[in-house]
Amino acid sequence: MMEKNPKLLLPEIKDLHKIEVFEQNGGYQQARKAMKMEKSEIIDIVKKSNLRGRGGACFPTGLKWSFMPDGIDKPNYLAVNGDEAEPGSFKDRRIFEFNPHLLLEGILIAGKAMNLKAAYIYIRGEYYLWNKLMQAAVDEAYEFGYFGEKMKEKFGTDFQMDVYVHSGAGAYICGEETSLMNSLEGGRGYPRYKPPFPAQVGLWGMPTTVNNVETIATIPKIFEIGPEAYSSLGAQGHPGTLLYGVSGHVNKPGVYELETGITLRSLIYVVCGGIPGGKNIKAVIPGGSSMPVLSADEIDVAMDEESLKKIGTHIGTGGVMVMDEDTDLLKVTLRIAHFYHHESCGQCTPCREGCGWLEKTLKRIYNGDGTSKDLDLLVSVCNNIEGNTICALGDAAAWAVRGFVNKFRSDFEKRVKAKRIFQAPNIAHAKRATADTLIYES
Amino acid sequence: METTEFKFTEEELKEVEKYISKYPDKKAAVIPVLWMAQRKFRHIPKPMMEYIANLLDQSYSHIYGVVTFYTMFSQKPRGKYHLQVCTNVSCMLREGDKIYQMISNKLDIKNNEVTSDGVFSLEEAECMGACSGAPMMAINEDFHENLDITKIDQLIDSLK
Fold first, then answer.
1. Residue A242 DSSP SS3
2. Do B62 and B105 belong to one domain?
3. Most buried residue among A246, A356, A417, B24 by CB atoms closer than 10 A?
4. Residue A30, C-beta contacts closer than 8 angstroms, at least 6 positions apart
């Protein structure tokens, strides 16, 4: 039986970022083990662990790897997504800083499983320091023979791969997998239409897998403790440990590695020490600003994808943002809408124009010129963005804004002009979205 | 005013070669090379874009497209100290927007403007992944977290 909440990704070991210390603590042993395995064996272990992607979509990692074609004469690539631009998400940074070699070990195992030619670690441009830290770790790993030509000697196999660090340049959209590939190829970060999926046509037209940093860093730990033990950690449908990043109105904000399935209430009150000044909670965003918001009476939910899905939101990147009772939710919604308007790449009309209209309408309400009709307009614009764009940025903007407007409608009603209050609200639109979460006070 | 020649030195060209060797296609080196230019000149003007286009066998329009797409590349010179203040939700909840306003008033510049002496430039930035240290700002590449008004006052005065 494993201890509760094991520190798999961020153990408290001093200087773990140094390769010697990492090796002393059992580092790169799992990669050695994997080098002697068959590809299918490795993928079976990952499948058995029931690991789900940590980037937000929660796609089963083993299944994703199994999509990579076998036995064709083309180089395969892995892109490790460290763009981490989702507001409220700041977990991958800790891996770059405190445990970069665990990520590299995971890349080696993924490399063997998918017969990779090279892996590219895409780190956002703002993370200049972390970029350098990761590059230093990569240089060390090359020096010690874990990558490149020296691999044959080190592991005694024919397999050889390379790893590179690539810096972004400040675009939120490049966290989307197809957009990340366009950015890596040196172009504007426009998302690509799917299909073809990256596993068929990815980087430079070759089969490619895109995984989150945290996902890849988890792989060696699955090999270490065994897939059965890993899948028994935390919640059943979404097992393992997760890096929760808690920010906003809490006494102890930070990144905490805990099992999935912990309740949001204990995460806020026990782990993070409650709300400053003993205030009450007004709203909590459970997984980065894209995910629909939760109200104070919903915080007894367990923090895993399946439980959150039942109440109409998602785990996302695990970036929890807590807002106390004095928060102006209209201002928060306006800021979120501004963010998506700013970051929309401009490729699809519904998102490019829709996000702009969301911001304009919210600004009108914020300035005191809104009417109750504007609230329905917001929901209507959201409904017309969602599902009509190539990538999920439009969906994210729609989910976020509609979540706030529907759930805290009474707050918004107070801010709009009363003179047109008799206008029949368009409930049909609101119902189409999240009928069970709709709170409407007439 | 002396005219700057917008090109790379021999040494820098070797670095460019290193970047090119990392990727199967020359085009992929565009962003790393643009970063070199941005860091060297604090902006990427048209002659530099043309130079890079030549260097990497790309069209000028492609390079121009990339520079305009990414917010961290600038066509106008930035200040010696480029202040990026996060005002996104996590920082806003901890009064990051007030800090932005305060800096804007103190330096008398608005978003994406440079002070007349060219020392400071200001940008209202989106989330930079330092939410646990909110409110935060980045001065060039360095993150400064857990800010308050007095800390910023001292910080900016120490740079002047």
1. strand
2. no
3. A246
4. A105, A109, A219, A220, A223, A224
How far does the CA of residue B73 sit from the closest CA of chain A (Å)?
7
Q: Which domain holds residue B86?
A: 81-159
- Inter-chain residue contact A87 with B87, CB threshold 8 Å: no
Residue that wins the pLDDT comparison between B4 and A111: A111
Task: Give the pLDDT score at B5.
Answer: 85
CA atoms within 13 A on the CB side of A99: 26
Among A92, A187, A335, the residue with its CB nearest the CB of B66 is: A187
Contacts with B31 from chain A: Cβ below 8 Å: 166-169, 183, 186
Sheet containing A294-295: give its strands across: A254-259, A241-248, A319-324, A281-285, A294-295
CB A138 within 8 A of CB A71: no
The count of domains in chain B is 2
pLDDT at B146: 93
Q: Give one DSSP letter per residue of A412-426, joined into a string.
A: HHTTSBSTTTTSPP-
**Residue pair A308/A233 in contact by the 8 Å Cβ criterion:** no
Crossing angle (nearest 10°) for helices A349-366 and A393-407: 30
B128 near A CB under 8 A: yes
Instruction: Flag whether pLDDT at A16 surpasses 50.
Output: yes
Say if strands A241-248 and A319-324 run parallel, antiparallel, or are unpaired.
parallel
Find the CATH number of the domain harbouring B35.
1.10.10.1590
Domain residues for A185?
19-231
Q: Which range among A108-112, A166-170, B20-24, B156-160 shows the weakest confidence by mean pLDDT?
A: B156-160
β strands within B10-112, DSSP E: 81-86
**Residue B129: closest CA among chain A residues belongs to which residue?**
A90
d(CA A301, CA A303): 6
- Nearest by CB to A185, which of B27, B93, B132? B27
Confirm if A252 and A268 have CB atoms less than 8 A apart. Answer: no
Q: Given pLDDT bands bounded at 50, 70 and 90, which one contains residue A219?
A: very high
pLDDT in tens, A51-73: 999 998 999 999 999 999 987 88
pLDDT for residue A131 is more than 70: yes
Cα–Cα distance, A98 to B111 (Å, whole number):
34
Whether A151 shows a pLDDT value over 70: the answer reads yes
A422: pLDDT strictly greater than 80: no
Residue A236 placed within a domain: no
> Quick one: pLDDT at residue A417?
82
CB pair distance less than 8 Å for B34 and A164: no
Ordered alpha helix ranges (H), A344-419: 349-366, 372-385, 393-407, 409-413
Token pair 């790993």 in the structure block, residue? A141
Number of domains in chain A: 3
* B20 in Cβ contact with B34 (< 8 Å): no
User: What's the CA gap between A262 and A286, in Å, rounded?
Assistant: 12
Q: Which of B29, B73, B127 is the closest to A186 by Cβ?
A: B29
- Based on the fold, state whether residues A94 and A216 are members of the same structural domain: yes
SS3 state of residue A371: strand
How far is the C-alpha of B149 from the C-alpha of B135, rounded, in Å?
10
